[in-house]
């Protein structure tokens, strides 16, 4: 196996981890947004809303970036997840 292929596999695995992290952050942001109506006062509601939107944007952006990179790596010779060596 060539060093370039090994680097592509490492990058692909890294993007899989980033994708999972993005899903977690997006889910956490949605939970914070859902908690907005249960806040006591206006300041708490605005804080939760802003934090939830920021977390959701970060999570969504991380998912989008990871998917885009994984798609480009698959287009450069990596057919599927099964093509990655499990070492």
Q: Major sheet: size, sense and barrel closure?
A: none
Roughly what fraction of the amino acids lie in strands? under 5%
What number is the mean pLDDT?
A: 89
The helix-and-strand class reads mainly alpha
Global geometry: rod-shaped
What helical percentage do the residues reach?
over 70%
The count of strands amounts to 0
Order of helices and strands: HH
Radius of gyration: 18 Å
Low-confidence stretches: none
Number of separate helices: 2
Report how far the terminal alpha carbons are from each other.
13 Å
Quaternary structure classification: single chain
Features:
mainly alpha, 87 residues
Summarize it.
With 87 residues, the chain is mainly alpha-helical. It has helices at residues 3-34, 42-75. The protein has a domain at 26-76.
């Amino acid at each position: 196996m060539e060093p370039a292929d090994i680097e592509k596999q490492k990058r692909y695995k890294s993007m899989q981890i980033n994708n999972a992290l993005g899903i977690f952050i997006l889910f956490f942001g949605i939970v914070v947004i859902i908690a907005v109506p249960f806040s006591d006062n206006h300041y708490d509601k605005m804080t939760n809303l802003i934090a939830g939107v920021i977390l959701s944007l970060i999570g969504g952006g991380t998912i989008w970036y990871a998917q885009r990179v994984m798609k480009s790596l698959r287009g450069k010779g990596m057919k599927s997840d099964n093509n990655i060596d499990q070492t």
